[in-house]
From TrEMBL:
Domain YrdC-like: 52-254
Signal peptide: none
Protein name: Threonylcarbamoyl-AMP synthase
Superkingdom in the source lineage: Eukaryota
One Gene Ontology MF term: double-stranded RNA binding
Entries under SUPFAM superfamilies matching the protein: YrdC/RibB
Length: 287
């Protein structure tokens, strides 16, 4: 089924900034060595992006990778855990929050502020690939591309289970959300590592979209939460494996626009591939 790319509808709450408690179950290298972690922050923002100045404390937390800061911010599809990509402690904390065993860890996504940042961390293989990405980004997409050596090893290699998990590829995102964009801009070309925030009260694989529930579930385990109202869309990002011929791994927001852009760029090649994919789908359905 084709899905149109639609903006996420958000219900905004009254602006406020307040400090959260200092208790926490996860610790960084700083706290283990006796240093006190900064007071956690809850920052409520509007939808117009005219209150970006409120995010300055978040900028300070994320600019220094040695702090191991982890927080939650809105994207164009859902709320996400984020940290400075070059903070090993932050990366490990996100894996711990997701309760991902070392044996089954997979690379998380990178949030990139522009095409230059994407090119810093990935290899865009040819001009046609670049044109497709330029047409669709920023937007609700996750593109899997070859990783450069700028991507830290903790992201792409499991030291304990090297035979099970070692890859030089990574998913990149460039969300169209003003507060997320402001946080990315503040790192001046350094990507954010990101992973969606789950709803721990749900038995299904559901994402947490209610800021009140996110605050109740996660405020003791992260350093900051940026609340931008309820994200009412139940759609995730469209995930595309560029390495293996624009293979769609998940149909989500923006899927129809992606197909249209690909058809314009690849023409008859795309039409032939589309026919094969349609036949394969028909066979799988009938089986």
């Amino acid at each position: 089924m084709f899905l149109f790319s639609v903006p996420v509808t958000c219900t905004r709450r009254v602006l406020s900034t307040r400090k959260l408690g200092l208790e926490g179950n996860l610790t960084s290298d700083a706290s283990r060595t006796g240093k006190k972690r900064e007071t956690r922050l809850h920052i409520e923002v509007s939808g117009e992006g005219n209150d970006l100045w409120r995010l300055e404390p978040v900028f300070e937390l994320l600019r220094d990778p040695s702090r191991g800061a982890v927080g939650i911010l809105p994207t164009d599809t859902s709320y996400a855990f984020v940290c400075n990509l070059h903070s090993r402690a932050g990366v490990e904390r996100i894996y711990a929050l997701k309760k991902t065993p070392p044996s089954v860890r997979k690379p998380l996504s990178l949030l990139c502020r522009n095409h230059s940042t994407i090119q810093r961390y990935t290899t865009v293989m040819d001009k046609r690939t670049f044109k497709v990405l330029r047409s669709l980004l920023p937007g609700p997409y996750t593109f899997i591309l070859p990783a450069t050596h700028e991507v830290p090893r903790v992201m792409i290699e499991n030291r304990t289970h090297r035979k099970m998990w070692k890859r030089r590829e990574v998913g990149i995102r460039w969300p169209r959300e003003p507060h997320c964009q402001a946080v990315m801009d503040a790192l001046d070309g350094v990507a954010l590592l990101a992973s969606s925030v789950p709803d721990i009260d749900s038995e299904e694989d559901e994402l947490a979209g209610d800021p009140a529930k996110i605050l109740a579930q996660w405020e003791r385990q992260v350093d900051f939460i940026i609340s931008a109202g309820s994200l009412s869309s139940d759609m995730k990002s469209t995930v595309v494996d560029v390495l293996r011929g624009w293979q769609v791994l998940r149909e989500g927001l923006g899927y129809k626009e992606f197909r249209e852009v690909l058809a314009l760029e690849y023409g008859s090649e795309f039409a032939a591939q589309e026919g094969l994919e349609t036949s394969s789908r028909d066979e799988s359905v009938s089986a």
